[in-house]
C-alpha cells in the first residue's frame, strides 16, 4: 500500500518540474541523442553568454558524468520517439520553456524514482522498521525533489549504500558505492573523511581502510572516463559561483530589499572569493570534532553534511536531500531534539522553495504540455495563474525578505544541529544491531 501510494504521488507530479533545470535536462537528452558531450555544449553556451553579455557563464549541465551514462539509453529511446527533437536554449532569466510530452518526463524521472525506492529499502533495513520505508517515500520534500525537480536521489543512493556497506564490512563495495554517488553529484565526497575516521576509531585493520579508499579512488577514475577535462571545467565553474541560496548569504542577492541593488554584487563577489578556504577550514574543524568525540557513523555523516551546510557559500534547496535519511535515523535512534531537527530540515527547504522559486513556476512545463503555443503568454508575462495579490511571494520585497529570513534560519539550524551534544540511543536500531554484531564477530580473529 505504501509503495502504491508513493508511485501514485510521483505520477501525479510527472508533468511538473523546475522550469530551468528541466529545460537543461531536455537539452542534455538532445546532446546524448546526437552523441555530443554536454560538457562541450556547456563551454559553447558559456562563450556565447560572455560574448552576448548575458552572464559570465551559462548554467548548463555542471555535474560529473555518471548521469550521462544512465540517461544515454533513455535519451536514445526518446530520440526514436521524437526523431526531429531540437535544442531549446533559453536566455538566462527568461520564462521560456520547451513543450515536452509525458514520455520525456517519464524517461527522465524513472531512474530517480527507482533510486527513491532503493533508498527507502536501505533505510528500513538500517532502522529495522517499515517506518523508514514509509517516511522517506512519502516525505513531502522528497516528493518535491524527486517528483518534480532533479536527480539528487540517485546521488543520495550512493551515499547511503556506502554507509550500509560499511556496517556490513563490505569495504570495497562501500568505496564503489561512494564513488558512484560522487560521480552523480560531487557532494558524497564529504563523507570520505568521516568513514575513514570511523574505521580508524573502530580499530579496523589497515588493509580494510586501504580497500575502501583504494576502491573509491579507482572507481572514481573509471567513471570519469573520457570526461575528466569537462569535469575540471565544471569544478572551475562551481568555484567561481557567487554565494547565496538557502543560507545567510542570500541577503546579498535580494535586490528588492535595498534601494540600490547594484551595490550588493561587489559584496557578494568579495565574500564568495573566500568561499573555498572557509569550506576547507570548516571541514577540518568538523574532522577534529569527529575524532575527539565518540559518535556513531550515522552521526559522523550528519556532522560532515552539516559542516558543508555551514561552510559552503552556496546551498541550493535540493541539497537538503543529503541530510534527510541520516537525520531520520538519528531521530529514530535518540528521539528528543533530533525529531524536531529532522522535521525542520525538510520543512524549511519547502518553505524556501515556495518563496524563492517561487513554487508556482513549477507549473509552466505543465501549461506548455497541455496548451502548447497558447501558453506563450507565460514567456512574455511570467504569469502562472496564481496572481492573486494576497499570495505573499507575488510581492518581491515580501518574498525576498521571507527568503532571507529562511536562509538565516537554515544556517542557524545547521550550526545548532552540528554542535548538538551526542546523546546515547534511547532505542536500539534493530537492523543495525545485527550489523554491529557481525562487525564485532569479524574483529575477534584479528
From TrEMBL:
Keywords: Membrane, Transmembrane, Transmembrane helix
Domain of life of the native organism: Bacteria
Transmembrane segments: 104-124, 136-166, 172-200, 209-228, 267-289, 301-328, 340-359, 398-420
Keyword Transmembrane listed: yes
Keyword Transmembrane recorded: yes
Protein name: DUF2029 domain-containing protein
Source species of the chain: Tengunoibacter tsumagoiensis
